[in-house]
Amino acid sequence: MSTKYLIFAVLISAVACDGSGNSNGDIALEDLDTELEIAACETLVLCERYPDIATCLESIVISADQERESIKAGRLVYNAINAQQCIDEVTTTNCPAFSKATSRESCEDMFTGTVDIGGDCLSSEECVADAFCDGITVFTCTQGVCVGRSRLGESCSTLPCVSGTHCADDICVPNQVLAEVGEACEGFFDCNDSSFCLDETCIAFPRTGEACGAFFNEASCGDSRNYCGEFADAPTTCKPKLGVGEACPVESEDVCVAYATCENEVCVALSKLGEGCSIRDGDSPCLENLTCDQRVCVNNTREVCPI
Fold first, then answer.
1. Which of 15, 170, 264, 303 is most deeply packed, by most CB within 10 A?
2. 172 forms bridges with which residues in the sheet?
3. 127 and 48 within one domain
């Protein structure tokens, strides 16, 4: 799995970026891992995924070692300016509950692949534009082959679509610009992260203290740090998630901050790196990006494949 997908797993699936960064310059390849981890943790702590920066930094592992191997082999080219732009873009002041973003162009373009169609590859980022690495298995060192992606209007039943398009009903169609609040829409994913579709119009998600609905695609809270207090309030309102040690309704879900869980009607902190753990009901008791292994929370790492 490539570095850019690791950073997306940390950031895009958890919190969306508002693109508010404005730094200038570039980032040396030897500094990339650290800079990405710091940028990720600043956002993740702001959005209450971790209690503090130090805990976050010891929990996530972002490594560009495999990309460095690919660069040495001539399969990748590093773009230091795009790396800086990527870090600026993942620095956020917002924590939307529903992120519909799938990629960020500068993050996708930190590395440029040089392997032509038909050439050996370890990841899709090693392939030239509009190609992907077919035949690889995640977290193994099996070599694949660069294969061309399906283009606009072509079938995507067996191949992924080229950049700028996505697969809908087995056909590659253009990506659409998400509608703003007040603009027309047909469904939930037509609207931007701050709104949802109601009566064919994008309506802003409710903020802290505003009335909210209990069900998905109704007026759920727009900030991931809030929950809809349907268990205690009438009418329901968006309120901040509960901290460690606070009482939580036994029948509720997702009311505690992300680094805690509701146990016996109290928000209890998830285990940190090196702390003891045990799997309960299929759920990990460790902080996100950690794994419970032999009753201890450990980091997730990846093997560096020789080329």
1. 15
2. 167
3. no
For residues 6 and 95, state if they share a domain. Answer: yes
Task: With respect to residue 298, please indicate whether it lies within any of the assigned structural domains.
Answer: no
The verdict on 79 and 123 lying in the same domain is no
278 and 266 Cβ atoms separated by less than 8 Å: no
Q: Taking the model in full, what pTM does it have? A: 0.81
Q: What is the pLDDT along the chain (307 residues), one digit of tens a residue?
A: 444 444 434 343 333 444 444 455 688 999 999 999 999 999 999 999 999 999 999 999 999 999 999 999 999 999 999 999 888 877 766 888 877 655 566 788 899 999 999 999 999 999 999 999 999 876 778 999 999 999 999 999 999 999 888 898 999 999 888 899 999 998 877 888 888 888 899 999 999 998 887 554 456 888 999 988 755 545 688 999 999 999 987 656 689 999 999 888 899 999 999 999 987 655 678 999 999 998 999 998 878 898 8
Number of domains into which the chain is organized: 2
Evaluate whether residue 161 is within a structural domain: yes
The two structure tokens encoding residue 136: 């690889």
Asked which of 123, 152, 175 is the last residue of a domain, the reply is: 175
Using CA atoms, how far residue 273 sits from 2, 13, 55, 296, in Å, is: 23, 21, 8, 8
Task: Please check whether residue 305 lies inside any domain of the structure.
Answer: no
Tell which of 96, 111, 126 closes a domain: 111
Strands 165-168 and 171-174: antiparallel
Is the backbone peptide bond immediately before 51 cis, with ω within 30 degrees of 0?
Answer: no
CA separation for the pair 178, 224 (Å, rounded): 20
In a domain, 51, yes or no: yes
Residues 6+ apart with CB under 8 A from 5: none
Q: Which domain holds residue 167?
A: 115-175
Instruction: Check whether residue 45 and residue 93 sit in a common domain.
Output: yes
How far apart, in Å, do the first and last CA atoms of the chain sit?
15
How far, in Å, CA of 299 to CA of 290, rounded? 5
